[in-house]
Amino acid sequence: MIQLAQGRAVLLGAVAIFALGLTTSGYALGDGLRRSKMTEHRTVTVRGVSERNVTANLATWSVGFSHEGSDLSSVQQSVDEQARAVRLFFQRAGFQPDEVADTDVSFSREQPKDNDGHPVGPQKLVVSRSIQLRTRDVLRARDAYTRQADLLRANVELSGSNISYTFTGLNGLKPEMIAEANQNARKSAEQFAHDSGAAVGKIKTASQGYFSVGARDGEDCDNCGSSGGSSPFQKVRVVTTIDYDLG
Q1: Over the stretch 52-91, which tens digit does the pLDDT of each residue have?
Q2: How many beta carbons lie within 10 A of that of residue 86, not counting itself?
Q3: Phi first, then psi: what are they for 97, rounded to 5°?
Q4: Where is this region: Disordered (predicted)?
Q5: What are phi and psi of 176, to 5 degrees?
Q6: Which of 12, 13, 35, 78 has an alpha carbon 20 to 30 Å from 60's alpha carbon atom?
């Protein structure tokens, strides 16, 4: 009986030790996973910005005009005279003939009718035309645009006049601006790490934002970009987003 009791005591002790071992190893495993997860999330996300003030190097100005009448010959003659006046305006402004080109011409015919749908009077004929200036002399174009009222004085029946300025040198700026944006992002990460008592490690992920060309000095340039804007004075901007590991 004594031997049997001793055997049971030994067995119970072994079970207790085994259970304690499982508990300890489970805690160690759980703590290790927790620390691993904490380490995995020791990152910082920062943004780097680079900007350049630029002046557009291409101006595109489209001048639309038209004339309405009942005789096609006289309507066409009036439009031709207006076209000559537009070209003369550009010539006097200092632009070369190869910078000026016809871009559009259209013709419409409409028969006026009474309330019963019966034809009334002669047909209404409209001839519309458009001439475009495309020049690298951007500031000259800007100056000429401020004097477009002279076209009205020359009997040009303006139906539209729109000038657009485009900066085409973006590719030449990209490498330098991306490098600067990345450097600024690194500086932000180092400042954050210093304040947190950590050190900046390797780049975990990086994303280069798109390049935008917008207004400078608050001028209206809502559509600046590849299609151009209403101001020749523009600003190129890029933002990069980088995730750094923290040591």
Answers
A1: 999 999 999 999 999 999 999 999 999 999 999 999 999 9
A2: 23
A3: -55, -35
A4: 101-122
A5: -65, -40
A6: 78
Q: Which H or E run includes 48?
A: strand 43-55
- Residue 87's φ and ψ, nearest 5 degrees, are -65, -40
| Bridge partners for 168 per DSSP | none
Prediction pTM value: 0.72
Ranges of H-type helices in 41-137:
72-92
Q: What is the dihedral of CA 165, 171, 177, 179, to 10 degrees?
A: 170
From CA 206, how far away is CA 200, in angstroms rounded? 15
Pairing type for strands 200-208 and 100-110 reads: unpaired
Mean pLDDT of 114-131: 86
Q: How far apart are the C-alpha atoms of 189 and 201, rounded to whole Å? A: 10
Q: What is the residue type of 120?
A: V
Torsion sign, CA atoms 180, 182, 185, 187: negative
Q: Is 178 exposed, middle or buried (0-12, 13-18, 19+ CB in 10 A)?
A: middle
- Measured distance CA(53)–CA(164) in Å, rounded: 18
> 140: part of which helix (H) or strand (E)?
helix 138-145
Rounded CA separation 188/240 (Å): 12
